[in-house]
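Quick question, first post here. What does this chain look like in 3D?
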Amino acid sequence: MRSLLCALVTLLLAGATASAAQAVAPTTITSGPSGTTDQSTAVFEFSSEVGSTFTCALTSVEPLPVACDSPKTYSSLADGSYEFVVTATDPSGVPGPPATRTFTVETPPETTITAGPSGRTNSTSPAFRFTSSEAGSSFSCTLEGGAPNSDVSDPCGSPKSYSSLPDGAYVFTVKAKDPSGNVDPVGDARNFTIDTVAPGTTISDGPSGRTTSSSPRLSFTSSEAGSSFACTLEGGAPNSDVSDPCGSPKSYSSLPDGDYVFTVKARDPSGNVDPTGATRSFNVSTGIPPSPEPMPTPTPTPSGTQSSAATPTVSEDSKAPVFARPPVAPAPRVATKVDVTGPRIILSVRKRMSATKGGGVRFTLGSLSEATTGILSLRSSSRRGAVALGTLTFRGRPGRRAALRLILTPKARAALKRARRLDVRGTVILRDATGNASIKPFAFKLTAAA
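> Answer (accepted):
Ran it through. Tokens below.
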């Protein structure tokens, strides 16, 4: 009988426990990722009986259940497969059955352009470098713009180069594709404009011809907004060549008397430089005629001799002789015509010239109408300013041409050997027998001997 009662009690208790478990409300996941997602952040919302508490677990992140609330957020998830498990416990402390959600994270790669033109450039052959946030990614590149339109879209690698692009505005875009096939939906882009047209330079104010000011001031402009300038002053006595970045107006001070050539070249924001620039020739002449020297004081002539320089007279106050200066006849007026025109310069210069193996550069000076002395100087033109390449002093005979051969300095020969080509500016100064001078600037490209 007792055993029968025990069995009945056990059966009743089991039934009560089963009924209590069935009474616990189930947990429901109401939102959150499922399947495949390209987001690295997962947010889950869930619910159960009022007053219930919850525990959450996420494989590889929180494998053991921890207390949580709705919504539950996981961030910075790596690519891979995940299972989310949430379990509710009712107010009486009885846990209910868990709810689960499986999903897979596959985020696209991020593309970054690390090098390449941006804004304005004068290069028609741009090159771009780029990377992906995921190793093993491949890339596709698109170039849009130009005149005519030069849209190009193709598989590419870093660096990606283009050549012979016409002037115009462009947009370069590159997108990465990871080994799983995910493509960066936005990619990275770079905007740039190719401009190969050099600006024009104009001198708007400053001395020209003869001036008595030793502190000239010159103003100038460029045909393109945002241009910078480089100024060169050549000539003077002694030579006062100066080349430096400058702004308008450009002022000089305390220049010695002499002939000068001022040259200014504009450089636009794309890097194009006016090849010839604008020049202004002027002569500084501040000389003042020297003061006349005082006449010497005459000395007494010994007795018994005659002096043609002065005749002695006797003053009333003293018996000492006083020498009176004889009258000086005025100098005759002579009409003179002053020639201030310098010799005519005819110099043969080609746009491209080659140095000889010995480092010489040859020029031909045209026939002269009078005897002259001259100076021929060459300088290389670069962003850092003008660098002297060599100077030649010569004499010209009337009615004859002059073959000039300037030898480059050792430093200039080394620079030409390295660069193979230099942009060169030159100046010829001729003076006639009376000192009148003419100045002629010129420019050409100098290549190394073959």
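Residues 288-293, 303-326, 331-340 have pLDDT under 50 and may be disordered.
The CA atoms of residues 92 and 298 lie 142 Å apart.
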